[in-house]
């Protein structure tokens, strides 16, 4: 069916003043000012109340952490003490049933904020959670969202010189075997894929060098991407210098990870030479502005990274350090903290680019992230009916500057997944009750 999204207030695309036409899963035409679609359409959606942007792409999250938002043992801490407080709680309490609820809640929040593609860095695999990737694949499929299933890993506990708790770690062979299994079952390299796979050892301070090296080899064999935390805090710099006698980017090169197959979470504390080196190799960086502010980690050098050729995307990061899963809100935070770092010429269009096209590049995708003929029909439609938008002159800028946080409609692969601000596939009141009940166990003191 050919559907014309007709006469929106504005579209984040050139030459689409009268909207766009979707056929099946793809955008097939942009309709310019004073024109009609070149071919007959089967249906019309009157979009006169809407601003249309590409579906947002979230490139870094930890969905299990929705169960420990604003946890009293972890608030008002920086990264390392924050992790020390929460690792034992996560290792004890995260189980298949509550991981399913955590994933469902995070996906629903993201979808309602206008997000159509997600990547979750699921690195926690305590005993009994072997099915984590299958649970997430099932939940993403039920939500109708695209997902990069990011099989993370931990194999260095505090006793080994890392910072994870022993109950949350796995041995290298177990990790690699499950990575093989997940890639064999879910990796889809086709255009328009709904599920893809990445491998993601957690961070330099909780995985071994052998795991980093072997994971890179495995990703090469399976055509999967690679992801890890890097350059998030000064503490990480000191850890790498003390344990590897080099800085984090040097370590990345040493283990074979300087590649355009890689995207990094945070990427804050890189010097000029490291920024240039990352750019030469096409390594992506996911900017996590909200989390960086909550944990006081620092300011990502977005302008320098982009100028060097680094793909820059956006992520909400873990819900315990955000503490929500709203990428549209994160987009506004990216603009505001960027202006503090640089100046007022950092634009709302920069932040929108990071959350769409830049994030798609981090995930290695060229079929999403823009509104253009031939690309997937992943769209977020926002109204400007709320009081916060009254008086706004530029409708695209208003989404960012006035603080849009909830889409009215969201389309993924040509299907409406949010209608009138609500997901079509579930009851959010019931989800809130179930998730809240599951989260209460995480408030028990160890």
Automatic annotation (TrEMBL):
InterPro entries: Amidohydro-rel (IPR006680), Metal-dep_hydrolase_composite (IPR011059), Metal_Hydrolase (IPR032466), MTA/SAH_deaminase (IPR050287). Keywords: Hydrolase, Metal-binding, Zinc. It is an enzyme of class 3 (hydrolase). Transmembrane segments: none annotated. The keyword Hydrolase applies. Residues 51-414 form the Amidohydrolase-related domain. Gene3D superfamilies: Metal-dependent hydrolases, Urease, subunit C, domain 1. GO terms for molecular function: 8-oxoguanine deaminase activity; deaminase activity; metal ion binding. PANTHER family: AMIDOHYDROLASE-RELATED DOMAIN-CONTAINING PROTEIN, AMINOHYDROLASE SSNA-RELATED. Belongs to the metallo-dependent hydrolases superfamily. ATZ/TRZ family. This is 8-oxoguanine deaminase. It comes from Prosthecodimorpha staleyi.
